[in-house]
Amino acid sequence: MLAYNLEKVKNKISVTAQNAGKSEKEITLIAVSKTKPVSMLQEVYDLGVRDFGENKVQEIMEKYALLPSDIRWHMIGHLQRNKVKYIIDKVSLIHSVDSLRLAEEIDKEAKKHQLIMPILIQVNIAEEESKFGLSSLEILEEIKKISRLSHIKVKGLMTVAPFVENGEDNRKYFKLIKQLSVDIMNENIDNVCMDIISMGMTGDYQTAIEEGSTMVRIGTAIFGERNYTK
Ligand SMILES: *Cc1c(COP(=O)(O)O)cnc(C)c1O
Question: How high is the pLDDT of residue 228?
């Protein structure tokens, strides 16, 4: 089932990219494995996937210890400052930076480990009460402050669009994120590049790719529905 699902997703990414005049190589597929057992991750790993997304520090730590070391772990969930120290040397990209204070903590821990941590700035593009992220109005000022930290590197933007039945309904938000990333790039801020746009999930990744996503985070379409009651 996993091989079939993965093939289907990869194929859709490739067809969508081509139809939009892009190469599938421009788009990184992140397999979002939260709540799923290590055996399933291993199976997807054996099928060639190296990028995995998790939203809980504890879960990254457990899975990190049990799975191959060439996996690139992506922290995609809300990150508490007091937990940064546990994952700083384990993840390859933190997608969910939504405050200067969190960026400062990441910078501090990265310095201790003598590494430079790539991060994305999370934008709450639809201004949903329930979601984390900076508003598009405050983002430029925050990025300017964050960019002064020496042990992080701002690589782009990330957003979690509203939950919709039809991915098309999120097109307007994806367009806004793309425009925002162009505006920020045009500011030419030192230590800030906008190479990555992390947007698109199971319900809307095709639309996200059409609008300029470079990283899609896909859970359900690969691993099946999540069961949170277990
Ligand atoms: C769970 C999650 C995903 C994957 O969602 P699916 O709809 O299962 O593809 C993507 N991004 C974030 C931030 C998530 O928490």
Answer: 81
